[in-house]
What we know:
With 226 residues, the protein is α/β, with parallel strands linked by helices. It contains seven helices and ten strands. 33% of the residues lie in helices and 29% in strands. The longest helix is centred in the C-terminal third of the chain and has 18 residues, at 178-195.
Amino acid sequence: MNSGAIISVRDLRKTFRVGDVDVHALRGVGMEIETGEFTAVVGPSGSGKSTMFHIIGGLTPATSGSVHIHGQDIAKMTDAERTRMRRTEVGFVFQKYNLLPTLTAADNIAIARHIARRPDALDGDFLNVLDLLGIAHRLHHKPRAMSGGEQQRVAIARAVVNSPSILLADEPTGNLDTRSSENVLTLLRDLNKRLGQTILMITHNPEAAAFADRIVHMRDGQIVVG
């Protein structure tokens, strides 16, 4: 394992039992991501990329193999340790924005601070992130008053409010039109370039993957290029 890698995946395998059939979603995946990299994993539906995403994020256990975050094997963590890792070390962005509809953008973001047991106040550094994301003027609006692109920006802000080491994004532009998609992808790239945020993005769209510095291709549960 490369000691400089923030994420290290080794011989990762995942098998699901569907009726009487074993479905091999991952077939020995290996990959390393360095601190500050923006990596996109691209592949068709069923290639295993989302399964890998959920295992790296500590949301789903692997059948075999290992994932190390900061050199720690997440499979050997206790449930409490994995929960703490997700709260403090990893930010998640999904295709669905998952914002609470009755709360303002500011309150949706503040909840992430509360869950991580951090102060509710947004510090100066994070206010700079809000400016970068272009939503500082929308903090008092509820999701229904915002466009899809604006809602996804709020979701990104919520994911990075606790300054996680890693941002995991699963099809972050899947529900957006072309212009909004380009805006969100540009913002992710800016977070990476300006703030050094490590980003792993899962996408089926090669045009979205092109915004990353490194592209990993998956097919049939394996990495074929990358």
